[in-house]
Design brief:
The chain has 2 domains: about 55 residues; about 45 residues, no CATH class. The protein is about 45% helix and about 25% strand. It is built from 4 helices and 3 strands. It has a 3-stranded antiparallel β-sheet with strand order 1-3-2, covered by helices on one side. The longest helix has 25 residues. The termini are far apart.
C-alpha cells in the first residue's frame, strides 16, 4: 500500500486534476483524503490517495467468460439431462417470481403471457 499526494490549485485545476484522474483510472484506489487549504489567491486542494502497491486495475475485458455451447461439449444423453434441469430451473424461477410479485400476475394475464398458463 502506497500513499500518493496531489496538489490541485483552486484557480487553475485542469492539469493537476487530469493527473489525479489519470492516476485513479490506472491504479486500484483504497481511500482518498482531501483537504482544502484556503490561502486567498494561492488556495488549493491537498489530496492523499491510498493505492495498492504496484497493482494496476484489472482489465475486465480480459476476464470475460466465453459462452459455452453445451450441445457440443456434452454427449446426447448428458445434454438431455442438462436441458431438463435448465427447464426446471427456469420454471421454478418463474413460479418464485410470480409468488413474490403478485401484481405482475394480473398484468401478465391481461397480455396472455405464456408464463402463467
Amino acid at each position: 500500500m502506497k500513499y500518493h499526494f496531489f496538489t490541485i490549485h483552486a484557480k487553475a485545476p485542469d492539469a493537476e486534476q487530469e493527473a489525479l484522474n489519470a492516476f485513479c483510472r490506472q491504479y486500484r484506489v483504497l481511500a482518498v483524503d482531501k483537504q482544502f487549504v484556503a490561502l486567498g489567491d494561492n488556495s488549493f486542494w491537498s489530496i492523499c490517495v491510498t493505492a495498492i502497491d504496484g497493482e494496476e486495475k484489472p482489465n475486465h475485458a480480459a476476464n470475460k467468460r466465453t459462452a459455452i455451447d453445451y450441445r457440443e461439449v456434452l454427449n446426447e444423453q448428458d445434454f438431455a439431462v442438462y436441458a431438463e434441469l435448465r427447464n426446471l430451473r427456469k420454471t421454478l424461477a418463474i413460479r418464485w417470481y410470480l409468488r413474490i410479485c403478485p401484481l405482475n400476475v394480473c398484468s401478465m394475464a391481461k397480455t396472455n403471457c405464456p408464463l402463467i398458463r
